[in-house]
Write a structure and sequence with these properties.
Blueprint (H helix, E strand, L loop, with lengths): L4 H8 L4 E4 L6 E2 L9 E5 L3 H10 L4 E5 L14 E5 L2 H12 L7 E2 L4 E2 L4 E2 L4 E2 L4 E2 L4 E2 L4 E2 L4 E2 L2 E3 L4 E2 L4 E4 L4 E3 L5 E3 L6 E3 L4 E2 L4 E3 L6 E3 L4 E2 L4 E2 L4 E2 L4 E2 L4 E2 L4 E2 L4 E2 L4 E2 L3 E2 L4 E2 L4 E2 L8 E3 L4 E2 L7 H5 L3 E3 L2 E2 L14
Parallel strand pairs: 2-3, 3-4, 4-5, 6-9, 7-10, 8-11, 9-12, 10-13, 11-14, 12-15, 13-16, 14-19, 15-20, 16-21, 19-22, 20-23, 21-24, 22-25, 23-26, 24-27, 25-28, 26-29, 27-30, 28-31, 29-32, 30-33, 32-34
Antiparallel strand pairs: 1-5, 17-18, 34-35, 36-37
Length: 331
């Protein structure tokens, strides 16, 4: 593999400033391990950025634009490219070079209901079960040992191995003797376009209203999403997050590792800290942490943290055509 990263950036419309001899890269690596034929990235600035870039042997390094003039190529075998967001550009280049997608097809060991509808150019992995009336959109990848029931998924979905979607949630009512009676679940799960669901995650079907995940949202491994939950567009739900039934989460939110949200309404562009337990509603743009979770927004001094929830600065939001005052719905 030999690639011209500048041509990829040009194709993607990402502006940059280049310094040093033109390089062809053969691999992508971390900045500490990269060799002269590799592409690396450094999003750090100031002294830490200077240290990491100057010590790297990478042939090409994507750097923050603020580093221009502070660092220079070590020799003719190195090229530095300065950008507004080197991490984003790095991701886009990696996706262009390492665009690994399973060949479309259905494993012979999968079980698919006659009433299910599978879109074009989809991959269905080994021992996956797709139940009655499920709908899978075009260009989707469903891993091995996945169970989909009562589910409708949009285009370009990635559902990794071991995921369970559409089983009943956890809801019971006690009778006069204290015995538990199961609350029937009669609705489903609706997943938007370009959604990714990590391995061994569980998403429950709705009881009286659908469980909904908006376009572009990414859900990590080992996440639990309960019944009747509404998650907006372009959210990041980190591994181990547990979201209790009837919770509503707005657009472009981020939940930290092992956080818990219980029957709350979370606004848009919210960050929930790792291990936080959210028991009360959270307004737009807030950052909460702790047990129980409380606002720490006024204590945060770095703008990089705000980027996790689509904020460029405190109170300033990325414009992606999202409505800040309304949660996502899927038609």
């Amino acid at each position: 593999m030999a690639s011209n990263c500048k041509s990829i950036l040009d194709k993607l419309g990402i502006s940059y400033i280049s310094e040093g001899s033109e390089r062809q890269i053969k691999a992508i690596s971390s900045i500490s391990e990269a060799r002269e034929s590799d592409l690396a990235m450094c999003y750090y600035e100031k002294e830490k950025g200077v240290s990491m870039i100057s010590q790297s042997s990478a042939g090409m390094i994507l750097c923050a634009k603020s580093m221009q003039g502070r660092v220079h190529p070590k020799d003719a075998r190195q090229q530095l490219i300065f950008l507004d967001n080197p991490r984003y550009a790095f991701v886009k280049i990696m996706n262009q070079i390492y665009n690994k997608k399973n060949t479309a097809g259905v494993s012979a060991s999968s079980v698919i209901s006659e009433t299910a509808k599978i879109g074009s150019d989809c991959y269905i992995g080994d021992y996956t079960v797709i139940g009655d009336n499920c709908i899978i959109g075009d260009n989707s990848m469903i891993g091995s040992r996945v169970s989909l029931q009562n589910c409708r998924s949009g285009n370009n979905s990635i559902i990794q191995s071991g995921v369970t979607i559409g089983e009943d949630g956890f809801a019971f009512e006690r009778n006069a003797d204290g015995e538990l009676e199961r609350f029937p679940h009669i609705r489903g799960v609706k997943i938007g376009d370009n959604v990714e669901v990590g391995a061994n995650t569980n998403i429950a079907r709705g009881s009286l209203s659908d469980t909904i995940i908006g376009n572009g949202t990414k859900v990590a491994d080992m996440v639990h999403i309960g019944h009747n939950i509404l998650i907006g567009k372009h959210c990041q739900i980190a591994a181990g997050t547990a979201i209790g039934g009837s919770t509503k989460i707005g657009d472009m939110c981020w939940t930290g590792l092992n956080s818990t949200l219980r029957k709350v309404h979370v606004g848009n562009n919210v960050i929930v800290g790792c291990g936080a337990v959210v028991l009360h509603d959270v307004p737009d743009g807030d950052i909460v942490a702790g047990v129980p979770a409380k606002s720490i927004k006024d204590k945060v001094t770095t703008n990089k943290l705000f980027l996790m929830a689509g904020q460029t600065t405190k109170g300033s939001y990325l414009q992606l055509g999202l409505e800040r005052k309304s949660l996502c719905t899927i038609p």
